[in-house]
């Protein structure tokens, strides 16, 4: 693809796809140029640098989160919708969790989200620093819940680069974790319960995973706590 047919939007879209498949550690401009049918120099001409492109891709991802209309949506429903949307976005793009620790992630996409979430908590009755604290409490909860999926995706890619079957290697590591857990009474009871529902491999896979509905449970608890502060 010649330089004059490339656009920043096309490059950022392709970068997000490549980051989703290869992760932050596997991302490079040469591979991106190949995907676009263009030379790496043409990509650089549009985005400046690899770091700048990653920042652009990260900011674009924030535009995927829908902003509820506060004129017809209560603050709790709006806060729930935005937290759920953020969690889904981070799950779709697990590399973004890595980017938080290595890049300055900011731009109009994230600012759009942050401004609206403050409006949600102001609509609830929080003001000034309290609205910031309420937003931060929910935001960090969502990040913590998204971390597991991001870590698993990164680990599978790492195991795959070693030349073996990533899922088999992951199952072996989990089986070792289950063996250690069996030495502690409460963990052993949970592992035994999982094993009773199916094969031992299922118990190993489920070990360390939060029970179904944990995200919704935790989010409700936080919003209940925030509502009690009003």
Describe, in short, the structure shown.
The chain has 230 residues and is mainly α.
The number of strands is 0
Arithmetic mean of pLDDT: 86
Number of helices: 12
Report, as a whole number of angstroms, the end-to-end distance: 56 Å
User: What is the CATH topology of the largest domain?
Assistant: Tetracycline Repressor, domain 2
Describe this entry's structure for a reader.
The chain has twelve helices and no strands. The protein is mostly helical. It has helices at 8-26, 29-36, 40-47, 50-62, 75-92, 95-100, 108-124, 129-161, 166-181, 185-196, 200-206, 214-229. Residues 197-204 have low confidence and may be disordered. The protein has two domains: 1-163, Orthogonal Bundle (Tetracycline Repressor, domain 2); 165-230, no CATH class. α4 (50-62) packs parallel to α7 (108-124), α8 (129-161) packs antiparallel against α12 (214-229) and α9 (166-181) crosses α11 (200-206). The radius of gyration is 21 Å and the shape is flat. Helices cover 75% and strands 0% of the residues.
Topology:
Elements: H1 8-26, H2 29-36, H3 40-47, H4 50-62, H5 75-92, H6 95-100, H7 108-124, H8 129-161, H9 166-181, H10 185-196, H11 200-206, H12 214-229
Helix pairs in contact: 1-2, 1-4, 2-3, 4-7, 5-7, 5-8, 7-8, 8-9, 8-12, 9-11, 10-11
Task: Supply database-style keywords.
Tetracycline Repressor, domain 2, 2 domains, mainly alpha
């Amino acid at each position: 693809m010649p330089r004059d047919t490339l656009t920043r939007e096309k490059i950022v879209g392709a970068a997000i796809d490549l980051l989703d498949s290869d992760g932050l550690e596997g991302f490079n401009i040469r591979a991106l140029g190949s995907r676009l049918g263009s030379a790496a120099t043409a990509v650089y001409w549009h985005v400046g640098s690899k770091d700048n492109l990653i920042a652009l891709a990260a900011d674009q991802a924030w535009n995927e989160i829908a902003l509820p209309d506060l004129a017809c949506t209560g603050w709790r429903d709006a806060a729930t919708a935005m937290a759920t949307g953020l969690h889904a976005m981070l799950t779709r793009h697990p590399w973004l969790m890595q980017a938080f620790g290595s890049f300055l992630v900011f731009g109009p996409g994230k600012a759009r989200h942050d401004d609206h979430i403050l409006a949600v908590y102001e609509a609830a009755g929080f003001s000034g620093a309290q609205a910031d604290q309420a937003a931060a409490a929910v935001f960090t909860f969502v990040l913590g819940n998204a971390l597991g999926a991001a870590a698993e995706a990164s680990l599978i890619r790492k195991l795959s680069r070693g030349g073996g079957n990533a899922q088999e290697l992951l199952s072996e590591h989990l089986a070792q974790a289950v063996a250690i857990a069996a030495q502690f009474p409460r963990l052993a009871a949970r592992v035994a319960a999982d094993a009773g529902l199916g094969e031992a491999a299922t118990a190993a896979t489920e070990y360390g995973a939060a029970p179904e509905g944990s995200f919704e449970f935790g989010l409700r608890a936080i919003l209940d706590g925030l509502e009690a502060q009003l």
